[in-house]
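Two proteins follow. First one:
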Amino acid sequence: MIKIIKDDNQLLLKYKSDGYQDASWVDRELQSKKYVTIRRVFTFKTKMRVVKEFKSNYLSKDTRFFLLGVADGDFYKINKNILGLKYDLLLSREMTINGKTFIANRDISVFHKIDNLINEQIIIGGDTENSIPITEFEELLLKFPTTTELTHYSNSRITRILKDYLGTISDAQKKLNTFLNKKSTIRVPLRFNTLQKYEARKYEYVRDELREVLKNPEEYAEKDWQKLITNFLLLIFPKYITVLENLRIKDFYSNPDKPTNRYIDLTLVDANGTIDIIEIKKPYDSCLLSSSKYRDNYTPKKELSGSVMQVEKYIFYLNKLGRSGEQDILKKRCDELPPNFDIKITNPKAMIILGRDTNFVEDQKLDFEIIKRKFANIIEIMTYDDLLRRLDNIIAMLTIKQIML
């Protein structure tokens, strides 16, 4: 068992043995290796033992103390080597610090996980530009998966892979198949009516399937998720006939002496050969707006503002390619396009799909709508809930038309 103690200008870790053995194993590790690792998260060297202030406790059979961090202004600074990080960790002295701050389920190191995803110092709290607000960090801790969730994700991923080979189908697919199997022979006078019914079932299938995958998006790798959503989009937006992945374009501005190759993850091509850009992010809940107000406004988070900036640059590069750039794309990607096709770059637009908005308060809904409308002339920003609402409206309208026929 561990406990984190704030002791004036120091942050201490108290280790207490679990009852099966006393804490003398810690002493043996320090003596033989000159370091000891506790809970697979904290690594302390011999000099980090605290014996002066807590001498009586330290010499007991079941308890040891170590120096975890020292005060540094408004923060506690924790040496990077203790947690195996690239930079020293800074934790606000105002935040609540306990074992769960550092250790998630199955002895997963919280900060080591974060460190693997970024290449900068981790700062929790404070007013620096790149610091993580305390409330956001606490929310992050709540979202670390439990043992049950980890098992569920593993089973879900296995099922998703196996169903491609074993014929397992989702509930949405079952509904569609049931509907198709019940269809009687189509009479000529009812062709249009039948097509309307098929069209409604198509959108119902996409909606139900999308709802299903949104329950556990973690089981998909980023690339797999993008492919899945683009397949849905080709059904929802029939104007587009294909998706070009990893489209190479030239950037003539970053390096004037030599053009730089840039790669757009996903581009949509419509039936007339016009190219648009699509940026698909996984549906994280808290990637859109800040949870607190700045000057009475909810501001875009980096995930949203960064995605907007990225597609704006892609649009800029595409517009500069000219006819030779269009021909170059057609030459390299002709196998993925219809015969006698032509590519046109004519004021390309972009679509960004990311995040969920179901937990927005009213002020957040308004601010998010203002942000979306600001870029609406060239960029359509949609949440996954926007997409579901759009599908619901399409289905409702098609159902009304069926009744009227």
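Second one, unrelated to the first:
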Amino acid sequence: MKHLISFLGTGNYQRVTYELDGKRASSCYIAAVLAELLEPDKVIVAATDEAWAKHGRGVEAAFRERNLDPPQRAAIPPGASEAELWSQFQTVVDLIAAPGEDDEVVFDITHGFRSQPFFASAAIDYCRSVLGRPANLRVVYGAFEAKNSENVAPIWDLTVYVDALDWSRALLLFLRTGRADDVVKPTERLGRSLRKQWSLSGRHGPAPRLQQLARAFENFGKDLVTVRTGSMLCEQPSSAKQLLQALQESRAEVTARIPPLGHVLDRILGMVRPLCTDARLSQPEGQRALQHLARMYLQMGRYAEAAAMVREGWITAYADQRADRPVRGRFETDAREEAEARLRTDSPRLLEEIGDVRNDIEHAGFRKQPLPPETIISRIRKLIDRWEHETAGSGSS
């Protein structure tokens, strides 16, 4: 089903011809125009008692003129107190969240009264981030003030700004936690919005290609959370390289339409770029990639993964080409054990120090004297510092 949710205020609305997606309709009331142009299955008009007393009959008459069923009214308080403001917010949340999971929601903020457009924005953000719906949302605004000399006013599609907010929040969560699951769908939604915007604007320049970026995030994210070092760093192409390429290809088209997102994308580029290497992981460049990955895990609070990366990365510094690239079919267990033995000979206590921290985490504190969290974090950080210092410029043959 398609649901249209619209606001009604107390303004002195004037008749104007509105245009959306190349189609036009005229009325004083934007809800009637949208109902005619979009043919929704259900229309709800949110209005205070004062607004409905002034315009309710006019709205219903406008619907009857079009042989449409009158809209359902959702009563909202005027927002004269803090309690009424919260009630207003909850009413808008309920309206947005009520449609089914696969339904389409068109949310019109044209005639929002006082703070209603602000609460609408907050409610949309709340529903999308907490409730995960509506997935199929379109936000529109009838720009009466932008009408031309022929009394035709555009209806602006603001959906891309909502999708951009979803995407930026998901990207920041990815930077903090490494979880890419929540990035994929917002990336796809933003891609659809940008493609629509591109199409309606006359198709200038290449079409947005965010679908490829969504897949790259998905593949890299799976490798990151499961610590698939070979797939992430060594495959041809690695998931890190695929993500880097997709980010580089998408950055210009995204920032051309939504400039503020450039900063977020630059931060992700800065995170991914050091992971892209063609060097063997035992060589200095490869070691730096592993060390960067270990620090990423540390900063994301993924301490078990950070500890594992310190151990395996340090052993890799002593490995030869038979065991320094964890790629299926080209990795020899015996050669890996030889590298571990060389490290143990060189630094007899090191693997025990690393193992003590890693085992404490993996045993979930079920030990006689479990380490305090601060000690675990501090030890991992010091081990990474030492690893970087002791392997700088070195490499296996």
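SUMMARY FIELD: Residues 314 and 387 are 7 Å apart (CA to CA). The first strand starts at residue 2 and ends at 8.
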